[in-house]
Design brief:
0% of the residues lie in helices and 28% in strands. It is an all-beta fold.
């Protein structure tokens, strides 16, 4: 099976996170501590309500009825966790521990 070109996101970003919902794929956050959130329905991207706390290098996870954004960086490592319910983000309890993210060392992936 080959990759197939689909529509571009509305806002180009790096260091963003993604999550899958039952009816859409989400992209959120990104470089410059972006709070932008977009949903992909299989055909096109739609801009949604922003995260409450913009971050880059964050993580995302899809649940059956929500998506989570957690951790990342703004001006310092962040412990913020937010849940997205297809309409907006709500801040949840913060992560218990905050650890800065680091890029893997050179030659970490020797097979490339």
């Amino acid at each position: 099976m080959a990759w197939v070109y689909k529509a571009n996101m509305n806002t180009a970003r790096q260091y963003l996170a993604g999550a899958g919902l039952q009816d859409a794929a989400l992209s959120f956050g990104g470089g410059g501590s972006s709070a932008v959130t977009e949903a992909f329905n299989g055909t096109s991207w739609t801009t949604k309500n922003n995260m409450n706390n913009g971050r880059q290098n964050l993580a995302g996870a899809g649940l059956q009825d929500a998506a989570l954004s957690f951790g990342g960086l703004n001006s310092s490592p962040s412990a913020v966790t937010e849940a997205y319910n297809s309409y907006f983000f709500t801040q949840l309890n913060i992560l218990r521990f905050v650890k800065p993210s680091y890029a893997p060392p050179p030659n970490f992936f020797p097979f490339f």
